[in-house]
Amino acid sequence: MKPVPQSIRTALDAIDGAAMLAQVERWATINSGTTNLAGLAAMAGELSDAFAQLPGEVRLVDPAPITAIAADGREVEVENGRHLVVSVRPEAQRRFIFTGHMDTVFPADHPFQELAWLDDDVLNGPGTADMKGGIAVMLEALRVLETFAPWQDCGYDVMINADEETGSLSSAPLIEELARGKFAALTYEPAATPEGTLAHARGGSGNYALTVTGRSAHAGRNPHDGRNAIVAAATLAVALKDLQRDDISVNPAKIEGGAANNVVPDHAVLRFNIRPKEPAAADYFTAAMNAVIGEVKQRQEVDVHVHGGISRPPKPVDRKAQKLFDLVRECGASLGQTIDWKSTGGVCDGNNIAATGVPVVDTMGVRGGKIHSSDEFMIAPSLAERAALSALVLSRLAEGEDL
């Protein structure tokens, strides 16, 4: 265990946990569910003001256009909020990317809108852990690092998107653009456990909608003239589920469509999710899915349109990423923090960053738990604790630590 050098200790001593907590309490009162565009705009304004203290350009980037399949099979545009980008010293040789998200899973009409202290250290509230607390950790670490001389030779981009909770579809091109060529990345999702465990390797995720078009007919007079889209969708659901194996899960989630009981339905939409553990599993599924679709189209004389795909590639941990994990553990030990990690089936923007070849640790945010529920909580002292961890890790990288 290396002692913390006095040069960075001075910066760490300047971490202001009380100010960080005040930020989180203010931000968490703003509903910024992914579909609440007004709330996201308000949150983007707050973050723009907060990140303006860093010595770089702050801008809001329009979301990339994306579409979804409506229940009636129409392809419709999906509106998203704008994404925050901060660029500091883009000319530097050693550059980093730091990411977070301003959106939550709680829409504007969700009953979970208030903050409540569960005890002296634990704050219950929407987005406190996932991940407005993490944004505060990121900002504070960068703020104090700007007083650390070696950090002045490093550059970085901050990207806080508005659609992470729905798969980052409108921000994925921006993540890829900003991540490319970076030395390393930190993402500020909450720790995987209240004890501070990091997420290690991650599986991937893909969401699909299959639109099935058949032919309507009278269910009593001439059913043989019909081509039942609901039956075809159900056949697809069972066949796709049968493609599941140890390295990939398949979850048929919903079938929409149909008509009156006396009409052979000519329309259905099957929605499903896959979770490949390795890139090869995703390739296997794509080929097998296309074969299943081809067989159903031929045998049941329906048309099938595929929408969607892999939005989060699997995230294995390669040699460079493991060195970054080891550095985080070593810095934690220097600060009296026990850092461990475990693999998980969950996904985040760390998956997208890793796909560009950049080593990333993506759970550098606060300690907390029960995210995506009304019981979500943040352990308030972890704000300063995790800011110190990030700052120390980055100080080591700034001084030339290799990966």
Write up this protein.
The chain has 403 residues and is an alpha+beta fold. Helix content is 33%, strand content 26%. The chain has helices spanning 6-13, 17-28, 37-51, 128-145, 172-179, 229-241, 279-300, 319-334, 349-354, 382-398, and strands spanning 57-61, 66-69, 75-78, 83-88, 94-101, 116-117, 122-124, 154-161, 184-187, 198-202, 205-213, 217-218, 248-257, 263-264, 267-276, 303-312, 341-344, 360-361, 368-369, 377-379. The strands form six sheets. It has a six-stranded mixed β-sheet with strand order 1-4-8-5-9-18, sandwiched between helices. A four-stranded antiparallel β-sheet has the order 6-7-20-19, covered by helices on one side. Strand 6 and strand 7 form a beta hairpin. Helix 2 packs across helix 4 and helix 6 (229-241) runs antiparallel to helix 7 (279-300). The chain is elongated and about 85 Å long. The two termini are 18 Å apart. The mean pLDDT is 97.
Rg is 24 Å
Q: How far from one another are the termini?
A: 18 Å
Strand order of the largest sheet: 1-4-8-5-9-18
Secondary structure class reads alpha+beta
Strand content: 25-35%
Round the mean pLDDT to the nearest integer and report it: 97
The low-confidence parts are none
Biggest beta sheet summary: 6 strands, mixed
> Roughly what percent helix?
25-40%
* Overall shape: elongated
Helix-strand pattern: HHHEEEEEEEHEHEEEEHEEEHEHEHEEEH
Number of helices: 10
Number of strands: 20
